[in-house]
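Q: What does the assembly look like in three dimensions?
Context provided by user:
Components: two
Sequences:
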Amino acid sequence: MEVIFVTSNEGKYREVRAIGKKYGINVGWMRMEYFEPQGNDLEEIAKISAELLSEKFQSPFFIEDSGLFIDSLNGFPGPYSSYVFKTIGNEGILKLMKDVEDRSAHFLAVVAYWDGEKVHTFSGRVDGRITDEMRGCEGFGYDPIFEYEGRTFAEMGEEKNEYSHRRKAIEKLFSWLSER
Amino acid sequence: MEVIFVTSNEGKYREVRAIGKKYGINVGWMRMEYFEPQGNDLEEIAKISAELLSEKFQSPFFIEDSGLFIDSLNGFPGPYSSYVFKTIGNEGILKLMKDVEDRSAHFLAVVAYWDGEKVHTFSGRVDGRITDEMRGCEGFGYDPIFEYEGRTFAEMGEEKNEYSHRRKAIEKLFSWLSER
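A: Here is the predicted structure of the complete assembly.
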């Protein structure tokens, strides 16, 4: 079985292709940017993006979107995690969280799969907390400030993939595809 | 002459209607939310939003989008100013700017007008700086932390409208419409 992953991010593609192998699914790569609407709801954003993108595709495909949601900041940076990382970065998040007691946060990933007729969404979530300073050198994005069971994602290396929100969402899709 | 302003914000509509009177332009109000794409470029966002919205309209209309761009934060909060205000607010911006020397910032407004065939954009900008603390009780949004020539927009009351980015963009549109 083959299915196309539409993403401009090579790192994401490699991670997802490796997961596919476990399920006997061959993941193809369509490297492109696509149109995403503004909004507060990551699942809704992914669903609309996939629907708009489906006008350009004949065969089934999926996209993935993810974000970091910090409780004491009302969910910020949420759906705009990528823009916020590019502008204020981890330094900005740590500054915002200075002297804040409630440091709980979660990563959320949503996968939207177009089966040729309609969109199906699958989500994965991992709960953790924001650290007081950056720790670890692996991974990317908010990994150095997101702590899960005592270590940051950037301190875990490959092991992070076992717990990651993206893996959970992708595995839900692949396991659903396998059972069809 | 009549033209429709599509916005869910009553305050914006009132401000714009008053400007229209000076130009002999009757501004009608279509109160609705519309679809906006994600992106880094406010003008591009407004243009695409108006193009998508034009599928629903027979007659000419315009929309307006604006944002606060802080130099030392790489333009943050920029196109996502509204989301950022709702989540971290002025307190968050001031925390991010604590001990930051370069406090220069600008407000940018873009108006996108659909003439029945294509979209025309007009922009207005006002340069100022981010204060060290909130000052003034009038206006809304980032007005209490945006200082222009010694006073914040929230300390100016009605006078703010004389210098505002929104007024500049709207006047460009109305003056262009009057000359057509």
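Follow-up: The domain at 2-179 of chain A is CATH 3.90.950.10 (Maf protein).
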